[in-house]
Automatic annotation (TrEMBL):
Pfam families: PEP_mutase
Gene3D superfamilies: Phosphoenolpyruvate-binding domains
Protein name: PEP phosphonomutase
GO molecular function: catalytic activity
CDD domains named among the record's database cross-references: ICL_PEPM
InterPro entries, per database record: ICL/PEPM (IPR039556), Pyrv/PenolPyrv_kinase-like_dom (IPR015813), Pyrv_kinase-like_dom_sf (IPR040442)
SUPFAM superfamilies: Phosphoenolpyruvate/pyruvate domain
């Protein structure tokens, strides 16, 4: 029988190796076991959770409204259901201070994740949209320290929300990226960067794998690869699409009494067989 710790380290190393500039890791983000199994079945080399998608699945809104009890339980279910590495979106760390962030990391490691996304955005009322750089760097150092203490080469994907939140330009993003890498991050995630020139500038200015978030209107993955991107994820995009189908089908049934929106559904036997295969 494989030692769980050994398997975690094996998955962590495999996940690291998938981050190659110019040949990006493509991550269709999942939010529950079923979506994770479908992503794996489609051929994904890893499964990434979407923090907001998990929150919605648990009946919560986005914005750090989950905690290190409920969300890691979803991660554990996903990690136990797929054979590929799993990386977890932990939002801002579900904690007020670095010590709390370290406890969150220990929880997601115990759940079977070998990567984390941690963002520098602040949620709730306040004058600033982002944490001060030094404060966020301390939180990233806590992530790194907790993973190192556990003996797992966790891939720490530091999210920089300058562009997404309108809190700075490319220069500010590069400054934050440099500080986060010095604190122990392995990669940099810049949602809101899809303009080719911006992406090229970020890829050239960040000495680590660059992750961008793509969706309708963004350049195809092949074009992002040519710009030097090492990881492409879709955030909550697939969860939004799935929930749109539910609303459309529900409104159709309740409005016209018809079932056309369900025509695109997966075959029952195919889906049931996939879900029953187990890890």
């Amino acid at each position: 029988m494989t030692n769980p710790s050994s398997l975690l380290r094996e998955h962590a190393l495999a996940f690291r190796s998938l981050h190659v500039p110019g040949r990006p890791l493509l991550l269709p983000n999942a939010w529950d076991v079923a979506s994770a199994r479908l992503v794996e079945d489609a051929g994904a080399g890893a499964v990434a959770t979407t923090g907001v998608g998990v929150a919605w699945a648990l009946g919560a809104a986005d914005g750090e409204r989950l905690d290190r009890e409920r969300a890691p339980a979803v991660v554990a279910g996903i990690a136990g259901a797929v054979r590929v590495p799993v990386t977890a979106d932990v939002e801002s760390g579900w904690a007020d201070d670095p010590a709390g962030v370290a406890r969150t990391v220990r929880a997601v490691l115990a759940a079977g994740a070998v990567g984390v996304n941690i963002e520098d955005a602040l949620h709730g009322p306040g004058p600033a949209p982002l944490r001060p750089v030094a404060e966020q760097a301390a939180r990233i150092a806590a992530v790194r320290g907790a993973a190192d203490a556990a003996g797992v080469p966790l891939f720490v994907n530091a999210r920089v929300d300058t562009l997404l939140r309108g809190a700075g330009g490319v220069g500010d993003t590069l400054e934050r990226a440099s500080a986060y890498l010095a604190a122990g991050a392995d990669g940099i995630f810049v949602p809101g960067a899809v303009d080719p020139e911006t992406v090229r500038e970020l890829a050239g200015g960040i000495d680590a794998p660059l992750n961008v978030m793509a969706g309708p209107g963004a350049p195809p993955a092949g074009e992002l690869a040519a710009l030097g991107v090492a990881r492409v994820s879709v955030g909550s995009g697939m969860a939004q699409a799935a929930h749109a189908l539910v609303r459309r089908a529900a409104r159709e049934l309740l409005g016209t009494g018809t079932y056309g929106a369900q025509d695109a559904g997966l075959d029952y036997g195919t889906l049931n067989t996939l879900m029953g295969e187990g890890r």
